[in-house]
Amino acid sequence: MVGNLLLRGMLAGVLAGLICFCFLKAFGEPSVDRAIAFEAQMDDAKAKASMPGMDMPAAAPDEELVSRPVQAGLGLFTGVVVYSAAFGGLFALVFALAYGRMGALEARSVSALLAGMGFIAVYVLPSLKYPANPPSVGEPETIGMRTALYFAMIALSLASMIGASMLHRRLLARLGAWDAAVVAGAAYLVVVTVVALLLPSVNEVPAQFPAVVLWQFRIASLGAQLLMWTTIGLVFGRLAQQHLMAGTPRLGAAIRA
Amino acid sequence: MTSVAFPAKSRPAAIPVRQVLPWAIFGGLLLMLAIYFVGAEEGATSLIRGMYVHEFVHDGRHLLGFPCH
To answer: What ipTM does the predicted assembly reach?
Structure first.
């Protein structure tokens, strides 16, 4: 049962990954290219400034390990699909634990609700604190710290969301489902806001970096994540429903029998 | 709990935690490793020598929101 759900989750994830890849190819890659062009421009300017008079073919670009077309094609495809399939699988595992423990909600509703919560906890809140950055934004020396902070933010946001769900269960009898959800949601927001305020800020956007490119890049990143979570939530919900209902006799069949 | 609110519906049967746990541990570990390779390998930490993985998934890493170089 769980293995089958896991497979269905990864299948939903692969489908979501394909959709995300098309979306990012159309709306994400242009801003990546513009950011790389900006980076090259800055390198040029720096090389000219440090060696006036010498008309060097500006700082020979470091040897390319993977060409741009591959990065923007097969590389992007692989990264997005693997990421999305993995999240689909993890999502199915969380679903397996939540299903039947969220009141009388049926599989499709549990899946849609969990996807919304996952999108907020794993992407939206962490990226409000540490937004996605295009190439040429970010100092190479701070990559270790930035990665640690980003993953810490995701972990804390996710832990807060799990805590809020537990709070919801405890308040259910006293407040009813709706009010308990409002209180738990507010508690989640308060906790992640405090966490975000306590964690150090990172701002490494070069002064001349075009604001429009930054906005387009971040909005494309948000769009892709929204697409991914929506697809996983809806497609997996349908697939899980099919699997979970397969064992129980249908109402129609029961009446005819 | 909410049986008062939904008296007509039967509650869907939960899957026993003991049944989910092995899948959650082994599956979860493998899947998180996959996310690590897309999101952080050869950036902050490195399991494989060189920069090939980093360069290959470069665009995806940026666009999925991970910090990158």
So the answer is: 0.88
**pLDDT average, residue stretch A232-255:** 80
Which residues are B41's β-sheet partners? B45
Determine the structural domain holding residue B49 and report its residue range.
39-69
First to last CA, chain B: 50
**Is residue B19 assigned to a domain?**
no
Is B13 inside any structural domain? Answer: no
Q: What CA–CA distances, in Å, run from B21 to A63, A93, A96, A114, B16?
A: 46, 9, 10, 19, 9
Q: Is B23 contained in some domain?
A: no
Q: Indicate the DSSP class of residue B14.
A: P
- Who among A79, A144, A148 is closest to B61 (CB)? A79
Closest CA to A96 of B20, B27, B13, B28: B20
Q: Do A135 and B43 touch (CB under 8 A)?
A: no
Confidence of residue A65 (pLDDT cuts 50, 70, 90): confident
- For residues A103, A108, A113, A115, the Cα torsion angle rounded to the nearest 10 degrees is 140
Closest by Cβ to B44, choosing from A6, A148, A220? A148
Residue of A nearest to B6 (CA): A104
Distance (Å, whole) CA A42 – CA A34: 12
Structure confidence at residue B6 as a pLDDT band (50, 70, 90): very low
Overall average pLDDT of the A61-87 stretch: 90
